[in-house]
Amino acid sequence: MDKLRKTIIYRLHGINYIGSTIQKLKDRKWRHNTDLHNENSKCYNTKLYKHMRKNKLNVKLIIIKILFVGSYGRKRAEQDYINLYDSINNGYNTIRAYRTEREKKENDRLYRLNYKRNKIKIREYTRLYYKKNKEIIRQKEKKRINCSICNKNICAKHVKRHQRSDYCKSFQ
Predict the structure, then answer these.
(1) What are phi and psi of 43, to 5 degrees?
(2) Which helix (H) or strand (E) holds 63?
(3) What CATH number should be reported for the domain whose range is 5-98?
(4) pLDDT in the model for residue 156
(5) The predicted structure's pLDDT at residue 1
(6) What Cα–Cα distance (Å) separates residue 2 from each residue in 5, 69, 70, 74?
(7) Rounded-to-10 torsion of CA 16, 89, 75, 102
């Protein structure tokens, strides 16, 4: 069973964004500030942080609710508030916090359907790309190097595969 933990559902002041945390609120605020100002953060260019930088907004967290729930309960509660505030369509949440099994199955069905529709297009694009770049691709395939681990002469495009081989691993 999932361990019950103190969970805080919060909203950013002046912004329609809902979040949840099991951290102390000051630690979560610090993380938001880091993501807001650190260009190396993977979240730096999200819709939320771009809006905050553009409008010179500070991170101020407003507690909506404090719960004691497991991880699934936390995500469900967060999703309930995302739905209540409609913060995906009319706010800055970009993804759902929780999806039901039914929603997961529907999403998988749509993914497979979309894949089947685009399969032919992808094959055609790949074929045309190869035809257009045939010489460059062949030159890259001919390039040979010495493995940095076992010093064996190998095709450059297969370095990673070679280094996972038993032969190469025996030199490590």
Answers:
(1) -95, -5
(2) strand 61-69
(3) 3.40.1440.10
(4) 87
(5) 59
(6) 9, 8, 5, 11
(7) 170
